[in-house]
Write a sequence for this structure.
């Protein structure tokens, strides 16, 4: 199942204040969503776009989406972030995607954004984060098999701080060695981490 009749969407306005249904708040159907291809012309949203509880294996279909917050959550078949070619921010949240083992397909143009990587039970690596030189804030938590922060080594600056917590497999902070932090560094409850 896909989003029917969305091929011409270029700008999506999500109306949270409307109870009359005037704004698109949620797409529901009896069949699970397996493709985002009908959103291929979507360029931006005013409020965050949320890809939640789908059966997509990648984010193919969002190649032209460049502006608006983006949450990718509870997509139990998602294996890759491929499809975020144009995405620039301002925020990217990746949470509760059980098959995601790395961040391959991470948006190459994401810069000066808030990045949240949370509760991805199979995430072993941040590999795929290749291009951002500056991030605003980073939150990495509850990724039980993540062993290092390699992938963040090209990030020169994190301006509003970084929180790293409850990543029980994390054994090293390697990946942050070249990063200037101008906000708080919070590291807590990473059971396997023995030194900073």
């Amino acid at each position: 199942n896909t989003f029917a009749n969305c091929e011409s969407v270029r700008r999506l306005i999500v109306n949270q204040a409307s109870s009359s249904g005037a704004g698109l708040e949620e797409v529901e159907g009896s069949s699970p969503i397996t493709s985002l291809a009908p959103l291929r012309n979507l360029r931006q949203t005013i409020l965050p776009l949320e890809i939640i509880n789908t059966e997509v294996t990648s984010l193919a279909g969002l190649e032209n989406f460049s502006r608006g917050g983006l949450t990718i959550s509870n997509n139990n078949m998602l294996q890759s972030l491929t499809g975020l070619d144009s995405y620039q921010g301002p925020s990217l949240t990746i949470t509760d995607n059980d098959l995601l083992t790395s961040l391959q397909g991470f948006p190459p143009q994401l810069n000066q954004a808030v990045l949240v990587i949370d509760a991805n039970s199979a995430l072993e690596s941040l590999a795929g984060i290749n291009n951002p030189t500056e991030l605003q804030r980073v939150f990495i938590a509850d990724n039980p098999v993540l062993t290092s922060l390699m992938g963040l080594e090209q990030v020169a600056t994190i301006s509003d701080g970084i929180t790293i917590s409850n990543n029980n497999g994390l054994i090293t902070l390697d990946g942050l060695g070249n990063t200037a932090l101008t906000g708080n560094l919070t590291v807590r409850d990473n059971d396997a981490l023995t030194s900073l």
In short: The two ends are 47 Å apart (CA to CA). The first strand starts at residue 11 and ends at 12. Confidence is low (pLDDT under 50) at residues 1-26. Residues 37 and 160 are 35 Å apart (CA to CA).
